Amino acid sequence: MTATNGAPDPGRDTHFGFRTVGIDDKQAMVDEVFDKVAPRYDFMNDLMSGGLHRVWKDILVTAVNPPRNEQLFSALDVAGGTGDVAFRIVHAGGAGARVTVCDTSEEMLAVGRSRAAQRGLERRVRFTAGNAEMLPFPDRNFNACTIAFGIRNVPRIDIALAELFRVLRPGSRFLCLEFSSVDVPGFDAAYDFYSFNVIPALGRAVTGNAEAYRYLVESIRRFPKPVAFADMITAAGFRRAGFRLLTGGVVALHSGWRL
Ligand SMILES: C[S@@+](CC[C@H](N)C(=O)[O-])C[C@H]1O[C@@H](n2cnc3c(N)ncnc32)[C@H](O)[C@@H]1O
Predict the structure, then answer these.
(1) Model-level pTM?
(2) Contact call for residues 14 and 196 (beta carbons, < 8 A)
């Protein structure tokens, strides 16, 4: 709910795309979006990004740097959806690499479990229902934590960052891939046109749901700028927070260490 005078109440309101919504209402709206698009989610990612999401995810996994030996390496991929990042981590690592995918959408998790079964990876990639704001894992549990294109969907980002910090082992790294802001003259206008016109139309054609993809585009514009997000990572307790812009700022890879 918004405040009675119609102005957003910073304590109780947030954004769902460009709409102001009650902070307690947002998660159900986000879950509805991903439950609906789950069966076509991976195909749409390839279509919308021209396959670039694979390159961005590979850059993330290179930064995770899972050991290529038998040593147990246990990673958590929050908002991991259909397991795309998780599969890449186990492929990049040795026999000891394990990933737990944690996500709020049962439909996204169901697609992920079936992809894991097709790849024979059920024992190495596990799918768990859970909210980034209240991770169902013990303190200091994982050798790495990742979140790809997930953090902007979370209603209370500061709480999710604190949770990621809590479950990470000291000496380990948090990595976050997220859409960012394009600031290249000429490219920014083309990117805006593509985002606000082409993506919702593709969403309608492929999933029958233009609204879900309008939310995607709007939520990207609402997300904090890279320096501000790096400050939030530091505020959660991480050290050496930094970021790297990819593809002219379409995406940012943020990181921080729990020391
Ligand atoms: C854009 S998808 C990203 C999926 C995957 N990481 C990828 O890169 O392909 C965003 C995911 O965030 C999940 N999500 C949204 N809010 C969440 C929350 N509070 N906690 C955990 N997952 C959440 C959604 O269900 C969805 O699977």
Answers:
(1) 0.93
(2) no
Q: Which of the listed residues 42, 103, 156, 179 should we mutate to test ligand 1's pocket, taking the one with most ligand atoms within 8 A of CB? A: 103
Give residue-wise pLDDT tens across range 149-192. Answer: 999 999 999 999 999 999 999 999 999 999 998 888 888 888 88
Instruction: Give the distance (Å) from ligand 1 centre to CA of residue 247.
Output: 22
Instruction: Please count the CA atoms within 13 angstroms of the CA of 250 that sit on its side-chain side.
Output: 16
86 close to 168: Cβ distance less than 8 angstroms: no
What ranges in the chain are assigned the alpha helix state H?
23-37, 41-49, 52-64, 84-92, 106-118, 157-167, 187-193, 199-207, 210-222, 226-235
Q: Would you state the structure tokens that stand for residue 66, as one six-digit string? A: 């899972």
Q: How many whole angstroms separate alpha carbon 45 and alpha carbon 54?
A: 9
Question: SS3 for 33?
Answer: helix
Nearest alpha-carbon partner for 129 in 163, 81, 88:
81
Dist. CA 2–CA 135, nearest whole Å: 28
